[in-house]
Write a structure and sequence with these properties.
Blueprint lengths: L14 H5 L9 E5 L6 E5 L2 H19 L3 E5 L6 H4 L2 H9 L3 E3 L5 H11 L15 E5 L3 H4 L1 H12 L3 E5 L12 E3 L6 H14 L5 H7 E2 L1 H8 L4 H8 L3 H13 L3 E5 L9 H8 L2 H5 L8 E3 L10 H5 L10 E3 L3 H7 L6 E5 L3 H4 L3 H8 L5 E6 L11 E4 L8 E3 L6 E5 L12 H11 L11 H9 L11 H7 L1 E3 L21 E2 L3 H5 L19 H6 L2 E4 L15 H7 L3 E4 L1 H7 L6 E6 L2 E9 L7 E3 L36 E6 L7
Parallel strand pairs: 3-12, 4-11, 5-6, 5-9, 6-7, 8-18, 9-10, 12-13, 13-14, 19-23, 20-22
Antiparallel strand pairs: 1-2, 1-14, 15-16, 16-17, 19-24, 20-23, 21-22, 21-24
């Protein structure tokens, strides 16, 4: 495929280690004994017994109130067939509680949608022609290697790379300039940058006049944001703001690569909305090498309704937000009586992990986990079902970082008795007596339904051809500037500095700054007790909690660590290499201190996510994070978290 050019990241390059791991779940399993690590054992059972057990329990609960059944899934399998098709049909038809799947990107998608109209952006294949690339809240060396290779090509042609991030990660070290605002203050920085661009008349007046909405109102808002104000909030210098604004405002082919880290705090949606105003202000959208990229997913006009069949819903089942799973399992009324987990490992990845584990530990909760390995969540399961890896099933993939549709053809037969998600839900539907014809659709039929016919940007693509060829670029020009002449997918067709959609939703219609909930600015009393801002970005060799159990990945990551600035370490008597206790009112964990200037003072960083049972003392970063939600999109606020750190001996988990 042209975008990847045959190159794999270090994780996926060892994918066979995952597929052929001796630790894979190969057969259905049933718990004997108590829930929790080391509390019980699993015995092998057959698929018929496993499915009959699940169906019987589901029928019992549904006879009283099917909302007592909760599916829990996210993107452990990214393909649309096994991510969101037969599973959605099954739970819709059953009448189960609906899951708000917002743990990763929802705040940013809503924010960018208010400005640009959808999760759309520049074509990343044009990045090599950029003159300036701003990598904002992203670490593409780790998480977007194929974009990074294009950044390096742009640099060879003379481009300058600027990183905006509170952590000097693997990407920041390779950039020409590092700007390190405090976590959660990116919108304040962007507002001050726009203040300078407007006051110095560096904006593209023609583009603003013809292709934006609400400039006059935004200009009045920007008067409130001189660099001095933002510098104090962000903890950076006025000069850094002014110099960046002048560079950005005078460099027309400028590409901004956003990622989802900067939207994982209370004001995350507004932060993305505000930053998304920048390319229209300077007219960067005019050139294919200019603009902004958060994701490309909304360029794919796939028929998700045909896949998920919301018409099967009966009534209006309640919605439960996946970021508040702990509260749902412990407090929901009517109670959650059964949990079906697939494509996720909530005991490790969900926020406020102690609450999640308390809920999973309920002896009356019937939990099914469809998994590749015995994860932290499996420790609390009643039934474990063996799942396929990407090499073992058919699927259809869109992307959020390029413009190619891909077919996933199985390379091998399923290992052991593993089955893909879609097949398991077909089997469960039959056992539940669901006779709707849609439950007979095979995986190829599901993929065809998703592509549909004659849909926007999918001209000429059909499933059979895609399956034979492997990939197809969307039907767009090879050098594509999607908004050179405006045409944004907003209600007005313009980039909306002033959003009536936001106003109708009770949100500020203009770009703004919403501070984190947990920071000295917002809650000084809490900050007195827990003075350090904590972020837990992805570890280089893990993919959230995937790969975190594989020996090669754990060896490369070495240990669960906490990066802390020398000033903060010195104040606490912390020495490099010693074990520390990091804690707040929600919980604690043990990490190994790395004393380094790669983090700014007042911020501590733990590359994540380690499995709890493979960590020091059985906790991980999510022992500290909050179930509070973002300002838009009801997303997770993983990086809106205050903590304290002190030296501590470690007692290993048995």
């Amino acid at each position: 495929m042209p975008f990847t050019a045959g190159t794999l990241c270090t994780k996926v390059a060892r994918y066979l280690d995952r597929t052929y791991s001796p630790d894979r779940v190969l057969y259905p399993l049933r718990r004997r004994g108590g829930k929790g690590p080391g509390q019980g054992t699993f015995e092998r059972i057959g698929w018929d017994e496993a499915l009959d057990t699940i169906a019987a329990r589901f029928r019992e609960i549904a006879s009283e109130d099917a909302q007592g059944i909760l599916p829990y899934s996210y993107a452990g399998t990214m393909g649309l067939v096994n991510y969101a098709s037969m599973d959605r049909r099954f739970f819709h038809r059953l009448g189960a509680s609906l899951l708000e799947r917002t743990i990763c990107s929802s705040a940013g998608k809503v924010g960018i949608g208010l400005t640009l109209g959808a999760s759309v952006g520049m074509d990343p294949e044009c990045v090599p022609d950029a003159e300036m690339i701003v990598i904002w809240g992203s670490n593409p060396v780790v998480s977007n290697l194929h974009f990074w290779s294009r950044c390096l090509e742009a640099r060879r042609r003379g481009a300058r790379l600027v990183a905006i991030d509170p952590w000097r990660n693997d990407t920041v070290r390779r950039c020409d300039q590092w700007i390190a605002p405090r976590p959660g203050t990116d919108a304040a920085f962007a507002l001050a940058v726009m203040h300078v661009i407007v006051s110095e008349r560096l904006y593209d007046a023609d583009y603003v006049a013809h292709h934006t909405l609400g400039f006059a109102a935004m200009r009045r808002r920007l008067e409130e944001w001189p660099p001095e104000r933002a510098a104090e909030i962000c903890g950076i210098s006025v000069k850094e703001i002014v110099d960046f604004a002048c560079d950005y405002g005078t460099t027309k082919r400028t590409a901004i690569r956003l990622n989802y880290g900067l939207q994982r705090h209370h004001g995350g949606g507004m932060a993305v909305r505000t930053i998304s105003c920048l390319p229209a202000l300077t007219g960067a959208w005019r050139d294919p090498a200019g603009g902004l990229l958060l994701g490309t997913s909304d360029f794919y006009d796939l028929d998700h309704a045909a896949l998920e069949r919301p018409d099967l819903l009966r009534g209006e089942p309640r919605k439960i937000n996946m970021c508040a799973l702990g509260d749902a399992l412990l407090e929901a009324e009517p109670p959650v009586r059964a949990l079906y987990v697939y494509n996720s490992n909530p005991a490790a990845v969900a926020p406020d992990a102690n609450r999640v584990v308390a809920g999973l530990s309920r002896p009356d909760l019937f939990t099914v986990v469809h998994e590749i390995f015995l994860t932290d969540t499996c420790d609390y399961a009643d039934i474990v079902l063996p799942a396929t890896t990407q090499l073992e099933h058919v699927d259809l993939h869109k992307s959020y970082g390029h413009l190619y549709l891909l077919a996933n053809n199985p390379a091998i037969a399923p290992v052991g008795e593993a089955k893909p998600n879609a097949e398991v839900f077909r089997l469960l539907a039959r056992r539940m007596g669901f006779t709707d014809p849609c439950f007979d659709d095979d995986d190829d039929t599901l993929a065809r339904q998703a592509i549909g016919k004659g849909r926007r940007h999918l001209g000429g693509i059909d499933w059979d051809t895609l399956k034979a060829d492997g990939w197809k670029r969307l039907d767009v020009p090879s050098r594509w500037a999607p908004f050179a002449q405006g045409g944004f997918p907003t209600p007005s067709g313009r980039c909306e500095f002033y959003s009536r959609t936001a106003e109708e939703q009770g949100l500020d219609p203009l770009p703004a700054y919403t501070p984190p909930r947990e920071c000295p600015e917002t809650d000084p009393a809490l900050a007195t007790r827990f003075p350090l801002q904590f972020i837990s970005p992805p570890a280089r060799h893990f993919l959230n909690s995937s790969f975190a159990n594989l020996p090669f990945a754990r060896e490369l990551e070495r240990e669960p660590r906490l990066e802390i600035h020398p000033e903060d370490a010195g104040l606490r008597g912390i020495r490099d290499g010693e074990t520390v206790r990091i804690f707040n009112d929600r919980g604690e964990c043990r990490l190994v201190a790395h004393v380094t200037a790669d983090v700014r003072p007042g911020v501590v960083v733990s590359p994540s996510i380690w499995w709890r049972k493979l960590s020091l003392c059985g906790g991980n970063a999510n022992s500290l994070t909050s179930q509070a939600l973002t300002d838009m999109g009801r997303g997770a606020t993983f990086y809106d978290c205050l903590v304290e750190v002190m030296p501590a001996p470690v007692t290993p988990v048995d």
